[in-house]
Amino acid sequence: MADAPQSWFFDAWSRVYDFAPVQAATYKPVHDAILAALRGVDCHRVLDIGCGTGRLAARLSRELPQTQIVGCDFSAGMLSQAHAHQTRASWVRGDATRLPLRSAAVDVVVSSEAFHWFPDQPAALAELFRVLQPGGLLLLALVNTPSALLSNVMHAGSRLAGQPFYWPTVGEMRQRVEAAGFRVRRQQRIFRLPGFLLPPVLTHAVRPVARKSSSVRRQA
Ligand SMILES: C[S@@+](CC[C@H](N)C(=O)[O-])C[C@H]1O[C@@H](n2cnc3c(N)ncnc32)[C@H](O)[C@@H]1O
Question: Of 12, 14, 37, which Cα lies nearest the Cα of 141?
């Protein structure tokens, strides 16, 4: 049994990943929700973590023409598909738990259907907090289950299959994001037909702007 999904699994998946009907039914509704959440937001540099074949990053760079988009993924296979897009987005290979970006490098982080694969979710959230500027926006979309039992059953099954993932419950997702230091603004269900009983949830959160220290001593 493996404790973390392997990048070869995603390398293999990348060859069929862009199959149009699957993209339209499964991933497009999630990408649409992320794009809608970004409309009207003044953003300059966006990280798409777990960008896969880069469809969301490519759409972001078309629809937000003033914004620089960086897609990051640990699978060389996914990134080689991403490179095929005619896009201004740039691509970087890296693991979500050890991001190859400097601190406060971006003002928005998005992630679609990837977070459940990250083997250490608190470590990934700590990295997302680090690379996001204070005041920056985090948009994380993945299936959040209605019960802890279901999360654990799915996790056990995926471990047995050798590619473990963990879908938190909606409440657990909020707790994890807040434990990393973010303020959760809202959690939005995304409707899609396949698997409509297990809908993805888009968590909107911000990295708070640090308050000024209150320990300034009064002058005597
Ligand atoms: C289901 S795909 C989603 C791709 C894309 N975000 C989309 O919406 O189509 C999950 C992606 O997460 C990536 N991934 C999984 N674990 C990762 C990790 N630890 N660090 C970076 N990327 C990871 C995989 O390589 C894969 O491309």
Answer: 37
Predicted confidence (pLDDT) per residue in 87-146, tens digit: 899 999 999 999 999 999 999 999 999 999 999 999 999 999 999 999 999 999 999 999
pLDDT for 43-74, tens place per residue?
999 999 999 999 999 999 999 999 999 999 99
Query: How far does Cα 96 stand from its chain's mean position?
Result: 9
Q: Where are the domains of the chain?
A: 7-206
- CA 22/CA 62 separation, integer angstroms: 22
Strand partners, 142: 201
- Ligand 1 centroid–CA 52 distance in Å is 5
- Could you give the CA distance from residue 120 to residue 124 in angstroms, rounded to a whole number? 6
What's the CATH code, domain 7-206? 3.40.50.150
Enumerate residues lining ligand 1, CB below 6 A.
5, 10, 27, 50-52, 55-56, 73-75, 78, 95-96, 112-114, 117-118
Nearest residue (by CA) to ligand 1, atom 25, is 75
- 3-class secondary structure, 99: coil
How far does the centroid of ligand 1 lie from the alpha carbon of residue 193, in Å? 22
